[in-house]
Amino acid sequence: MLGISANDSNIDDKIYKQKLSSSEVLLTPRAAKVLVFWLLGFFLLFLITLFLPWQQNIQATGDVTALRPQDRPQTVESAIAGRIIRWGVAEGQFVHKGDTILQLAEIKDKFFDPELLTRLEEQLQAKKSGLVAYNSKTVALNSQIAALTQGLQLSLAKARNKLQQNQYKLISDSTDFEAEKINYKVATDQLKRQEELYKKGLVPLTALETRRLKFQEVSAKITSSENKVLAARNEVLNAMIELNSLRAEYTDKISKSQSDLSSAFGSVAEGQGDLSKLTNEYANMKIRNEQYFIIAPQDGYIVKAMKTGIGETIKEGEAVVMIMPNNPRVAVALYVKAMDVPLLSIGRKVRLQFEGWPALQFSGWPSVSVGTFGGRVEVIDAVNSKDGKYRILVSPDPEDEPWPMQIRQGSGALGWTMLDDVPIWFEIWRQLNGFPPSLKDKPDDLIYGDKGSGKGEY
After folding, report:
1. Is residue 362 part of a domain?
2. Do 384 and 457 share a domain, yes or no?
3. The domain containing residue 316 runs over which residues?
4. Which of 21, 126, 302, 368 is most buried by a 10 A CB count?
5. pLDDT tens digits for 189-214?
6. pLDDT digits (tens, 9 = 90+) for 271-289
7. Buried b (16+ CB within 10 A) or exposed e, 241-259
8. Listed ranges 150-154, 219-223, 393-397; the one with the highest mean pLDDT
């Protein structure tokens, strides 16, 4: 009671506290202490978390597609215009390469004749026969020209020989004429002297008459020689005229044959052009006959029929059905912002979430993300696509879990391209400031694919 012992002091304190209500108000509640303890624990945990590693990533959306163009859905088009007369498939049906999808009938009057191909073949044979005849004509004309040329040479040689003979004869007759002229002068002088002697009475009349007869013979001979010379000259002129006439005659014949030969060559060239045109038309018609049956270009499933019914007409190049190739090499097309493209390179790891496979997403901690699948960057487009973004193609990562077999082309996908590890506080700071991710190492130069042979890995 007096407070002398230690126990007495404790008792006094208890009595004091029980009697004073203000002391109860000033005491700290137990719940507050627990709250402070938990807040302090969360704060310390938050500080520790800020220094945990976080893998930077580039997030992008896209859809499922195929890595190879031939594995993507395609439309089967008609090469010709026609009318549908028979369907060979149904939607959802699996078809093999070469199976008939539908059959068409002709709608152009130019091709109505069912025997058109036979008619064209007959025209081809007729044109070929005509070409053979024209070629034979050219051979005959060449032989004729050769014969005329040879005949011209022989005739000219004969004419030259005849001209030479006439020239020799002219020389001979001219020589005889000169001799007769000398004889005529001698006979004239002898006749004058004989007449003088007769006048003087030195010779008888018979001698004078004999001399006169000889003079007449010489005069006749000189006239005959002169006529021969003139005739020989005329023969030389005739031989020269004949020589020139032969040249003109054979030149006219050869020129006519050459003209006929040129016309024959022209006909051959024209026939060859017509033959080529007919051959082209025949080949086109043969191929067109094969286009009446639209066949499957590869194995796959008929997804959708663009045309329906029997009797409906289609245009050239118009799509008929859509086909989904069988066993495609699946990939994901993601669209990345332009500011993130320089950080990408071929072979970068990617985490993917497909629609229909919900995931507990931790983009920076791929090891604890549930329902995501691994991939790697296979293609980076060199030009932007829609909305200014760049498309990248992601193929399955062979070192990771296989992609689900149930995913279909066209379904949505969400992807994270994995970059370097940084502390969480750095990532928060970067996101708040809108900075792009950072890389410790320079990206690989290989960003557009193989630059060597031009052959991809498809």
Report:
1. yes
2. yes
3. 74-106+292-324
4. 302
5. 777 887 787 787 777 877 777 777 88
6. 888 888 888 888 888 888 8
7. eebeebeeebeebbeebee
8. 393-397
For residues 297 and 245, membership in a common domain is answered with: no
* Three-class DSSP category at 16: helix
Nearest-angstrom CA–CA distance, 14 and 96: 97
Same domain, 99 and 131: no
Helix (H), strand (E) counts: the chain: 6, 14
Question: If you search the block for the tokens 């149904």, which residue do you land on?
Answer: 90
Whether 353 contacts 366, CB under 8 Å: no
Radius of gyration of the chain (CA): 61
User: Is the domain of 197 the same as that of 89?
Assistant: no
Please say whether the beta carbons of 344 and 354 come within 8 A.
no
Question: Burial, 222: exposed, middle or buried (Cβ in 10 Å; 0-12, 13-18, 19+)?
Answer: buried
CA distances from 4 to 9, 13, 18, 367, 371 (A): 8, 14, 21, 70, 75
- pLDDT over 50 (residue 452): no
- Cα gap 81→60, rounded to integer Å: 44
CA-nearest of 416, 410, 428 to 344 is: 416
Is 0.70 surpassed by the pTM of this model?
Answer: no
Domain count for the chain, please give it. 4
**What are φ and ψ of residue 211, in 5° steps?**
-65, -40
